[in-house]
Design a protein that fits this description.
By secondary structure, the chain is of the alpha+beta class. The chain has two domains: 147 residues, 3-Layer(aba) Sandwich (Aminopeptidase), CATH 3.40.630.30; 151 residues, 3-Layer(aba) Sandwich (Aminopeptidase). Helix content is 38%, strand content 27%. Strands 1, 2, 3, 4, 5, 6, 7, 8, 9, 10, 11 and 12 form a twelve-stranded mixed β-sheet that branches. Helix 6 crosses helix 9. It is globular, with a radius of gyration of 21 Å.
Length: 312
């Protein structure tokens, strides 16, 4: 293990406020040593910033990109206490620029940054581009009645309908979710992009670390209508992955599972993040749960002229 990884590991053990998708354990558990690395900046013996990344080969190109089921990546900064705003911006420029300079030379860089990251100017000055994406976040889980009241009427109606006919149970059978997903993709003539081995790794990780649950909505005959995997850290819960059997699309089962996940999250963390989508129909559905529209950055840079041409 490199010294940077060791220091990163120690920091993540000490600081429990680091988002789940930026933790050492997330990367070390889900990816081989060759598939990920981290750059860090220190002041004295203290790590003041880090950027973990996944690196892969595609044909002859070397890429840094977001892996499946890791919705957010990016930079985490350890700010000095009681810092003036003007000094905060200077600190961000200095540390972010140092992190960028340490990144390996690759043909393409692409990461979706955590919503808390708001200053991408140092990337702009280094030749990167940015696309603003959106998620929806319920940022206060303390009042269930108020949360439910903020849902659109059709969502409330779906949930009430589903509660009469379905029950929500915990499951560890990730193979069932995989098979349901695979069946849907096959019917559409597409290939499900997540391997069973990787999906199982994620499911095993969240159960072993007690930072997630796999929920299932079943009827009285034990037919599975929907499945939902969500995870959490100290600051937020996140919808991660889900599926609905096409035979039961109108039963409200996914809305019921999301509502159950939101309620359960109130005992574990502060907020619920729907993990966003730029697909219009999915955005419309998530928006109906009354969360705050929250921007986050997708930051990119293509260094290879050949890859630029191919992408064009």
């Amino acid at each position: 293990m490199t010294s940077a990884k060791k220091k990163y590991q120690l920091l993540c053990k000490i600081n429990k406020e680091i988002p789940l998708f930026l933790t050492y354990d997330w990367y070390q558990s889900l990816f081989s040593d060759k598939e990920w690395n981290v750059v860090i900046v220190e002041r004295g013996e203290e790590v003041v910033g880090f950027l973990p990344y996944n690196i892969s080969k595609k044909k002859s190109f070397t890429l840094i990109s977001n892996p499946m089921l890791t919705p957010y990546q990016g930079i985490w900064l350890n700010y000095p206490q009681d810092q003036k705003y003007v000094n905060k911006l200077g600190f961000e420029k200095e540390i972010i620029t140092e992190l960028i300079k340490q990144l390996p030379k690759v043909d393409s860089f692409q990461q979706k940054f955590i919503p808390e990251f708001t200053n991408w100017l140092p990337f702009y000055w280094e030749g990167y581009s940015q696309t603003t994406r959106y998620t929806y976040v319920i940022d206060n889980l303390s009042d269930e009645d108020k949360i439910f009241d903020e849902f659109k009427e059709n969502i409330r109606r779906e949930i009430r309908k589903a509660e009469k006919k379905l029950k929500v149970e915990n499951s560890k059978d990730i193979k069932q979710l995989y098979e349901m997903k695979q069946k849907i993709y096959q019917k559409n003539g597409e290939e499900y992009p997540i391997s069973f081995e990787f999906l199982k790794k994620v499911n095993d990780f969240v159960h072993q670390n007690k930072c997630g649950e796999l929920l299932v909505a079943v009827d009285e005959k034990n037919n599975i209508h929907s499945m939902l995997l969500y995870v959490w850290d100290n600051n937020s819960a996140y919808y991660l992955h889900g599926v609905t059997d096409k035979r039961y699309k109108t039963t409200g089962s996914m809305s019921l599972l999301l509502w159950e996940a939101i309620k359960r999250s109130s005992n574990k963390t502060k907020a619920f993040n729907f993990e966003g989508s730029m697909i219009e129909s999915i955005e419309r559905y998530f928006r109906a749960f009354g969360g705050q529209q929250t921007p986050y950055f997708e930051i990119k840079k293509t260094s290879s002229k050949l890859l630029k041409l191919l992408n064009y």
